[in-house]
Write a structure and sequence with these properties.
- The protein has 218 residues and is mainly alpha-helical.
- It is 77% helix and 0% strand.
- Helix 6 crosses helix 7 and helix 11 runs antiparallel to helix 12.
- The radius of gyration is 22 Å and the shape is elongated.
- It starts with a helix and ends in a 5-residue tail after the last helix.
């Protein structure tokens, strides 16, 4: 077949059919597909399917890729599929390979699902075991969930984020929520000497003080 969409669709179909019986063989066959982008797309599709039946094996295969960009793309696919079955296992496995330079964003899908399915256990892991960058990312996600039922806890989570831009973004999310649902809560946070650092207060006060007090902005 000549190059084109019909051939690409046919190659993808072959890879998917092979993956049902032998995912490693399917990935080996993918290597002969023309075009790097197409090879990566089909490999990602095969890995996603493999991860649904054997996520640990799919993860180890993805981690063996010597091209770091390709590796991270493949790990993201596997983690996404794994999170649908067992987000805690997906997160724990990613963390076990943290010394291999996995970027924090690879945890996003699994962490998000874990927080929504078992908030207490996911929070405990974040505070006790998570690598620093992953911890900050997880706390940022947790703030959005906490705001739905416990705004004071959301503040506690936000203040524990070590990365200044991420911390201020989480605080900004809380103040935006407060503007809509509880302005007094937001004003109390802005004016508290014990909660915000002077730098955080300066960065947020000009943006939210008038809004929360019900005055028009300058």
């Amino acid at each position: 077949m000549s190059s084109g969409r019909a051939r690409e669709a046919f190659e993808r179909q072959i890879a998917m059919q092979m993956a049902l019986e032998d995912p490693e063989a399917a990935l080996g066959w993918v290597g002969q597909i023309e075009g790097e982008n197409m090879r990566r797309q089909v490999a990602g599709t095969v890995l996603y399917q493999w991860a649904q039946s054997d996520p640990e094996a799919a993860f180890l295969h993805a981690m063996a890729d010597s091209d770091l960009s390709s590796r991270d793309n493949q790990v993201a696919r596997v983690a996404s599929a794994w999170a649908n079955q067992d987000p805690e296992a997906a997160v724990e496995t990613l963390a076990a390979f943290s010394d291999r330079g996995l970027p924090p964003h690879l945890y996003s899908g699994a962490l998000g699902q874990w927080i929504h399915s078992d908030e207490e256990r996911a929070t405990d892991w974040l505070m006790k075991k998570a690598p620093v960058g992953v911890r900050d990312q997880g706390l940022t996600m947790l703030v959005g969930v906490r705001l739905q039922h416990n705004a004071p806890s959301a503040v506690v989570d936000a203040l524990q984020i070590s990365n200044s831009p991420q911390r201020r973004q989480a605080l900004r999310q809380i103040l935006a929520w407060s503007q809509q649902y509880d302005p007094a809560f937001g004003l109390g946070l802005l004016r508290s000497d014990s909660a915000l650092t002077s730098e955080d207060r300066a960065a947020l006060e000009s943006e939210f003080s008038n809004r929360l007090a019900g005055r028009p902005e300058d």
